[in-house]
TrEMBL record:
Claim: Signal is one of the keywords in the record: yes
Signal sequence, start to end: 1-18
Organism: Mizuhopecten yessoensis
Keywords: Signal
Protein name in the entry: Heme-binding protein 2
Domain of life assignment: Eukaryota
Record-linked PANTHER family: HEME-BINDING PROTEIN 2, HEME-BINDING PROTEIN-RELATED
InterPro entries (UniProt xref): Reg_factor_effector_dom_sf (IPR011256), SOUL_heme-bd (IPR006917)
Family according to the record: Belongs to the HEBP family.
């Protein structure tokens, strides 16, 4: 599995990197259409560029699970997803069903080399009505976590991408930013906004956390 260190190297040796001019700041007035009337984390667009944008996310509460593996498979993805789905279906300390939110985000943190194990963290956002006192998961491999406010470079795309296709989008975003000092190299995120039965107008994102 390729590490982000390699992606940064690819940018460093690129022969022609375009200088991109930021566009005016755009505030989020309402949840975007790609949230499909589900709750999603609150953010504002602080800069827009050709092909990507910079967002500021507010603090939010999530339910998460994780695994460590050399190669991330579809079975791994499904197992993590259903652990979180069982939590919102009532496998929690209050035995309550919790509405689904969007996106499902997967944080990927690679080890130091191409043969390293990687760490994968899957997340559902806890609905706002539960964020002050979220039900405790009954599965010991599932936990509540808080994402503090952060800024993130975001590239959006459609379709039903494979893991390799998502990696290609990360590589594209790295190249477009064109400056490895502007983002975290140790980890990145994939964000998916659609259920498995959505066919048209699917929305996906890759995120690189901005450095300041």
């Amino acid at each position: 599995m390729r590490c982000l260190v390699y992606l940064t190297y690819c940018v460093a040796v690129s022969c022609a990197l375009a200088v991109v001019q930021p566009l005016p700041n755009v505030q989020q007035a309402a949840p975007p259409a790609f949230c499909h009337d589900q709750e999603c984390p609150k953010y504002s667009v602080t800069q827009s560029f050709t092909g990507y944008e910079l967002r500021h996310y507010e603090e939010s509460v999530w339910v998460a699970t994780n695994l460590t593996t050399m190669e991330f498979t579809q079975n791994d993805s499904s197992e993590m997803f259903f652990k979180l789905f069982h939590y919102i279906s009532g496998n929690n300390s209050k035995h309550v069903k919790i509405p689904m939110t969007t996106p499902v985000i997967l944080k990927v943190e690679h080890g130091p080399g191409p043969t390293c194990e990687s760490f994968f963290y899957d997340h559902f956002m806890v609905p706002f009505e539960f964020q002050d006192d979220p039900p405790v998961p009954t599965d010991p491999s599932v936990y509540i976590t808080v994402l503090p406010p952060f800024d993130v470079y975001v590239k959006s795309f459609g379709g039903r991408p494979s893991f390799d296709e998502k990696m290609a989008m990360i590589e594209s975003l790295v190249t477009e930013i064109a400056d490895p000092s502007r983002f975290e190299e140790r980890f990145y995120y994939f964000a998916g906004y659609d259920g498995p039965y959505t066919i048209n107008h699917r929305h996906n994102e890759v995120w690189l956390v901005a450095r300041h």
